[in-house]
Amino acid sequence: MDSSPLRRTPLAAAAVAAGARMVPFAGWEMAIQFSGLVQEHNAVRQHCGVFDISHMGVLSLRGDGAKDALQRLVPTDLFRIGPGEACYTVLLNEAGGIRDDLIVYDRGRVAGGEGPENDSTDELVLVINAACAEADTAWITAQLAPEGIRISDRKGDGVLLALQGPEAAARLEALSGADLGGLPRFGHRELTIDGAPVFVGRTGYTGEDGFELLLGREAGLALWERLLAGGVTPCGLGARDTLRLEAAMHLYGNEMDATTTPLEAGLGWLVHLEMPADFIGRAALERQTAAGVSRKLVGLKLQGRAIARHGYPVLQDGQPVGVVTSGTWSPTLGEAVALAYVPAAAAKPGTELAVEIRGRAEPALVVKRPFYRRG
């Protein structure tokens, strides 16, 4: 059992002062909720909420040909994005299993090249999961450093915030004085707020419009306090989980892990086998594409008020056939929803299944994902 002390983000004390209830999460002490999960959830769906996500890892990859080098580690064609754009993708092992999911931001050419005749270089910024950050960093470094790519911690002791909800753009425009109307989803740029530089990506984990903001420690604390003083709702991990689940977004360790391929996890759209580049796990995914997958991740709606949880058995005709990966009561929809792995033959929407909950078989229906989509 790991007895290491929990790490604290630069905003931990401010979160407690704002009423946060703190819990251990991925080696960090994190806010699980402030005013209450449902209130925070609804604030993001209807107005605007802010999350401290400073536990996430943020890496900088610098060096000429950084994108070519990273391409060997991911199944997504990175040359479909250019400077100012980003994409969601996964790191794979040789078996096609998912080591982690991440967002890759293409920063283009930036200052900081090596040598008197090379004053600029390529830069990619990666945002990776907190639980995988150390392992990812070591593995990426082992893979890319021999090619001359410099890997560094871009966050340091800084702050990463997620400003999410239909009012997020207006809030950020008022703070920065910038017009964000032309910044598309997964676009990114540098802004200035109260004189401090802020790296801004139009990304998030809630199913709403929103932004993720990377800035220095003191500037991050000042921005957090300013947002709360302006009426933005502070939100914890509880609401983050119900929001992402309604949007059917994957959680590493639940919907995907090193034994799960993107094709099984419903992430086939990330796999670009048509590109000529080789990547780790390509051969395994080619074989699985040819043979077909034996199991698939599906969305379930329970027909009663019972709530399916991670690890609960999924039944078909009374027999166990799969397992729930995530489940909750949806505050937006007013019904219980879940994600689960089931045999491919049982994955068609409309298929009647059941989830075993406290010894009872609770009826469930396979439905299309996501459960919620902003209209």
Describe, in plain words, how this protein is organized in 3D.
There is one protein chain. By secondary structure, the chain is α+β, with helices and mostly antiparallel strands. The protein has 3 domains: 7-53 and 157-246, Probable tRNA modification gtpase trme, domain 1 (Gyrase A, domain 2, 2-Layer Sandwich); 57-153, Aminomethyltransferase beta-barrel domains (Alpha-Beta Plaits, 2-Layer Sandwich), CATH 3.30.70; 294-375, Aminomethyltransferase beta-barrel domains (Elongation Factor Tu (Ef-tu), domain 3, Beta Barrel), CATH 2.40.30. It has helices at residues 12-17, 37-46, 66-71, 133-144, 168-176, 217-229, 237-246, 282-291, and strands spanning 7-8, 21-25, 28-33, 49-52, 57-62, 86-92, 98-111, 120-128, 150-153, 159-164, 188-193, 196-201, 210-215, 233-235, 295-302, 313-316, 319-330, 335-343, 352-357, 360-367. A 6-stranded mixed β-sheet has the order 11-12-13-10-4-14, sandwiched between helices. It has a 6-stranded antiparallel barrel with strand order 15-18-17-16-19-20. Helix 2 crosses helix 7 (237-246). The termini are far apart. The mean pLDDT is 96.
